[in-house]
Amino acid sequence: MDADTGLFTPDSVTWQVHGDPMMWVAGVRALYLQALHPRAVRGVLENSDFRRDAWGRLLRTADFVGATTYGTSEAAERAGARVRKIHSMLGATDPDTGERYGVDEPELLLWVHCAEIDSYLHVVRRSGFPLTDAQADRYLAEHRVSARLVGLDPAVVPGDREEMAAYFEKMRPRLAAGADARVVDDFLLRPPTHPLLIPAREVLWRRVARLAYASLPPYAHELYGRPAPEPAVVTRRLRATGSLLRCVPARLRWQLPPKHILRAMARLGPHARPAPYRTAR
Known about the structure:
Number of domains: 1
Oligomer: single chain
Mean pLDDT: 92
Radius of gyration: 18 Å
Strand order of the largest sheet: 1-2
Helix content: 55-70%
Number of strands: 2
């Protein structure tokens, strides 16, 4: 009874949503969206080895999300402090003006946060995870906590769907699919891998990347210069993929790294198991 439930509790919407396997598709969508901010993507390209360590970067992101969602309060705060420290030491050069800037500028942190959280909510919900509008708003409000961990003032972070929509509308004039975004686009379709795994990449990964890309908002398709697919078709594909992945036993899925859900259940008891039915009540 005295165990630390962390920054998000087993009763939170976040606890349930982040246990869904469609989070992997949502994470790729977030990368496509984040790349449309020229200064944000320049910061990634100048300071990241993601082109050589693609899978390591994805696992580190999954580890941060898992630690802040399911870890103890101390573990979440420690993960946030580590991210803030790394960001404080990194800078990049504006691709248009040549200006040097820090990657921890509030505007960039906010863009990365909103693109990520919006993608998680959009993909998981559109793929059939049961969330009411009120629960979707609650999810966004809960993530003012994760925004604080990366150095943002929670008061400036969109806390419901209306505020999030207004934020993206405001940001649209600042977005572009320049050369850096094209690098990310190409990378996500063809991430480097061992030659023996190339067939698996073509069969599995490319399908994930294409589905993530298809789920982007219409303005993102316009910026990338490819026709937007029919929304109803994308929704059917998301639902079919979600149904397929959810057929895999959760205990089996949770054995994959970083195993934060299993550790949370061991710490808190079986009632901490994330599940869609807990939001459907």
